[in-house]
């Protein structure tokens, strides 16, 4: 087994190896995904937008057709499509199908009537039977026959005969016409309609003025009004049935109408397949080009404004390059893709080099690198979707989301470097869009400025105003130097305004998600922790009011110092509020919470007193864990004392040791640490010591306070407490200057009112 020191070194090497592999994997993955968002194929060398000025003369390298724009081609195809008439096919078998259906219904009616007659006869016979056994046997037969009648009736109803009513079998078979005559009357009523033609439903999505009718293989153009639809044909059938039906019997007429309605179908039917085929053929016949450019022909001169016509020629030249195979072979595809990866690498190198040089703690945190990668990919995907897939304005790409998120999560400097990288990368992907790059660099700067010191959620309103105004201003400036139509300008303005409103709202919503997923504490969470109704602060105020007051005063000192040296003043205040929460467990052992004349430590040994005092750090960490206090705030609890000694009880122990000639262990009087490792924790260590010590000064004045601060800072430096802290000697001088006004302001004397001293003496006598 390895010795402990060697094992630690081995584990550290493994961690660093894992860290480097993870960093390289994430960066390579980011490069590959970024390259996927570039336009397919090679990037065209003559990439100009309408109203841009050319920098070179462009000569056609080969013959090519001038392709129509997609809008113009679609317009021409729609015009050709509108000339195609819907195709209807005359079905010669429809009348035969109807006659067959009528005969089938007639047969079922005859069966039903006969079955009903037989059932009625059996019922009459059953009523005359006197033998009980014979009657019971007959009941089973009656049930079978009733079920048979019901099944026939259900079949008729399924065919559409809903109004069968009471069967008139006696009428049909004995007194009136037969079911065959009924069927023939229905056929005679339907025959004229099929001779005229019954047209099926017309397409609802087109205005049909003429149709193409195919009858026995021959086509003819007809007006659909030459034929009757189902509703008109039905009215004709009803008239015939009502005019010639037997005995004017309403029940039989209704039955005949039901039969006719059940079997009637159109004999001129719309053929969607033939119509769609003819439409497709017509669209394919529309020419896709409007002219031709020949080899060595000049497409455009240098220093010339690009018109829509010139732009279309350049687009056609690019399409011809692709058609001829430039960039389409497997080798060219691989080369092109590798080029896109390298281009992305050049731009991302700028950002990652800055991180590794100036923000190594971020670069070495895989969680934060992953967050950066996710935001990068999200914005690139949105840009690709909005511009290339949806065809919307590039000013709707919500780039300011990244600016605000990274400012809140990191700081303004990091956010600016990220936005320069991300904006350049996105602008290149969007065909080297200079207006997009300029607009988003400007707007991102405004967004960073509005949230660089996030202190309230109402700042979202300023963010919306800043982002919207920034986009509108840049668009207006670019429109001053180029000739764009009013519709295009308004489209960009509308999308930019929508972007300005939505981006800040989405940013604040995403911040909540990012905090949960990536376990990051932002200023939004810190603002919530400042609420005095927070469980921990409320407990501290109730159980240890002196400590609570001390924490507030330390917070004021820490904020002034942090702002002076460029630290996070909000984090410094929150850390100050929570650094002594452990004292709420045993508040009576700390002097700021003790009543005059009572001191718990008088009955304790110096070593035990020191143990009780040091325990507030452990108690504070426990409370922080139980209440899920963010680690960035919980770090203030052990770091505000670092590895310092509980000096009062240590000196007391030394004096007693001299008297008894015994030895003491210095470690028993030291806090467990660790030492401060950030500007904010270092500032709090100084502020906490200064605030506590200043309360013991008699007749404090600026000179004494300054001397006190010098002593405290010098002791912390000599004790190595600030060795891991990024505070410089210049920062320490600035901190002293920033704390002095706050400290002197809190130590001022109040005016003594007349009679106040006498009243105080009286109160002392009474007590």
Describe the structure.
The protein is 65% helix and 4% strand. The longest helix has 35 residues, at 94-128. With 767 residues, the protein is mostly helical. It has helices at residues 4-36, 70-81, 94-128, 132-158, 169-175, 179-196, 230-244, 250-263, 272-284, 308-323, 330-358, 360-363, 366-389, 400-409, 412-429, 434-451, 459-480, 486-518, 523-529, 535-543, 545-565, 569-578, 606-626, 631-634, 636-639, 647-660, 679-694, 702-718, 729-746, 756-766, and strands spanning 58-59, 64-67, 87-90, 211-215, 218-222, 268-270, 289-293, 298-300. The protein folds into three domains: 4-41 and 330-520, no CATH class; 87-276, no CATH class; 536-766, Orthogonal Bundle (Hypothetical protein af1432), CATH 1.10.3210. The protein contains 30 helices and eight strands. A four-stranded mixed beta sheet has the order 5-4-3-6. The protein has a two-stranded antiparallel sheet with strand order 1-8.
Chart the SSEs and their pairings:
Layout: H1 4-36, E1 58-59, E2 64-67, H2 70-81, E3 87-90, H3 94-128, H4 132-158, H5 169-175, H6 179-196, E4 211-215, E5 218-222, H7 230-244, H8 250-263, E6 268-270, H9 272-284, E7 289-293, E8 298-300, H10 308-323, H11 330-358, H12 360-363, H13 366-389, H14 400-409, H15 412-429, H16 434-451, H17 459-480, H18 486-518, H19 523-529, H20 535-543, H21 545-565, H22 569-578, H23 606-626, H24 631-634, H25 636-639, H26 647-660, H27 679-694, H28 702-718, H29 729-746, H30 756-766
């Amino acid at each position: 087994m390895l010795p402990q020191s060697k094992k630690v070194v081995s584990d550290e090497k493994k961690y660093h190896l894992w860290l480097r592999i993870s960093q390289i994997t994430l960066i390579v993955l980011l490069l590959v995904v970024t390259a996927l968002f570039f336009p397919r194929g090679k990037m065209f060398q003559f990439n100009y937008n309408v109203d841009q000025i050319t920098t070179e003369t462009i000569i056609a390298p080969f013959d090519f057709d001038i392709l129509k724009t997609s809008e113009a081609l679609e317009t021409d195809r729609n015009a050709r499509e509108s000339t195609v008439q819907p195709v209807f096919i005359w079905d010669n078998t429809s009348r035969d199908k109807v006659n067959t259906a009528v005969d089938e219904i007639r047969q079922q009616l005859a069966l039903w009537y006969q079955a009903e007659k037989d059932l009625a006869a059996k019922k009459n016979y059953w009523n005359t039977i006197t033998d009980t056994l014979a009657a019971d046997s007959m009941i089973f037969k009656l049930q079978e026959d009733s079920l048979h009648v019901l099944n026939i009736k259900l079949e008729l109803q399924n065919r559409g005969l809903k109004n069968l009513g009471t069967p008139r079998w006696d009428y049909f078979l004995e007194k009136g016409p037969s079911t065959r005559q009924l069927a023939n009357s229905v056929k005679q009523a339907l025959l004229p309609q099929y001779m005229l033609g019954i047209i099926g439903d017309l397409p609802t999505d087109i205005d049909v003025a003429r149709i193409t009718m195919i009858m026995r293989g021959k086509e003819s153009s007809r007006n659909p009004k030459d034929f009757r639809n189902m509703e008109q044909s039905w009215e004709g059938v009803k008239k015939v049935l009502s005019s010639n039906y037997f005995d004017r019997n309403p029940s039989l007429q209704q039955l005949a109408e039901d039969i006719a309605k059940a079997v009637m179908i159109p004999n001129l039917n719309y053929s969607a397949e033939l119509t769609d085929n003819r439409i497709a053929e017509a669209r394919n016949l529309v020419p896709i080009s409007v002219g031709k450019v020949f080899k060595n022909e000049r497409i455009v001169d240098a220093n010339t404004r690009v018109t829509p016509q010139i732009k279309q020629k350049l687009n056609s030249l690019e399409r011809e390059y692709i058609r001829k195979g430039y960039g389409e072979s497997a080798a060219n595809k691989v080369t092109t893709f590798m080029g896109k990866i390298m281009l992305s690498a050049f731009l991302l190198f700028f950002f990652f080099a800055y991180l590794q040089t100036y923000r190594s703690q971020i670069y070495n945190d895989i969680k934060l690198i992953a967050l950066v990668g996710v935001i990068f990919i999200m914005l690139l995907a949105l840009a690709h979707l909005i511009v290339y897939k949806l065809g919307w304005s590039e000013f709707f790409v919500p780039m300011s989301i990244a600016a605000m998120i990274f400012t809140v999560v990191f700081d303004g400097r990091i956010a600016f470097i990220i936005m320069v990288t991300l904006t350049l990368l996105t602008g290149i992907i969007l065909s080297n869009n200079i207006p997009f790059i300029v607009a988003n660099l400007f707007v991102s700067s405004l967004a960073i400025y509005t949230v660089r010191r996030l202190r309230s959620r109402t700042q979202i309103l300023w963010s919306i105003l800043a982002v919207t105004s920034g986009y509108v201003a840049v668009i207006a400036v670019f429109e001053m130097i180029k000739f764009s139509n009013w519709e295009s300008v308004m489209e960009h303005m509308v999308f930019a305004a929508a972007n300005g409103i939505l981006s800040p709202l989405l940013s604040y919503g995403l911040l909540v998600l990012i905090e949960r997923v990536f376990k990051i504490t932002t200023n939004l969470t810190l603002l919530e922790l400042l609420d005095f109704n927070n469980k921990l602060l409320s407990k501290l105020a109730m159980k240890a009011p002196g400590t609570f007051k001390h924490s507030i005063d330390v917070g004021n000192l820490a904020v002034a110092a942090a702002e002076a040296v460029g630290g996070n003043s909000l984090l410094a205040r929150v850390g100050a509020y929570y650094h002594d929460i452990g004292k709420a467990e045993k508040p009576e052992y700390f002097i700021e919470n003790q009543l005059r004349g009572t001191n718990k430590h008088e009955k304790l040994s110096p070593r035990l007193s020191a143990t009780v005092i040091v325990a507030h750090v452990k108690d504070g960490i426990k409370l922080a864990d139980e209440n899920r206090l963010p680690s960035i705030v919980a770090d203030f609890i052990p770091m505000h004392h670092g590895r310092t000694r509980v000096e009062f009880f240590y000196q007391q122990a030394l004096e007693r040791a001299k008297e008894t000639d015994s030895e003491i262990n210095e470690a028993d009087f030291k806090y467990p640490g660790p030492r401060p490792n950030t500007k904010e924790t270092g500032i709090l260590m100084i502020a906490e010591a200064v605030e506590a010590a200043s309360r013991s000064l008699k007749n404090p004045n600026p000179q004494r306070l300054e001397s006190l601060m010098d002593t405290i800072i010098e002791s912390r430096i000599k004790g190595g407490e600030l060795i891991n802290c990024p505070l410089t000697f210049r920062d320490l001088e600035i901190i002293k200057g920033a704390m002095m006004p706050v400290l002197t302001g809190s130590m001022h004397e109040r005016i003594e009112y007349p009679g106040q001293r006498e009243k105080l003496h009286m109160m002392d006598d009474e007590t």
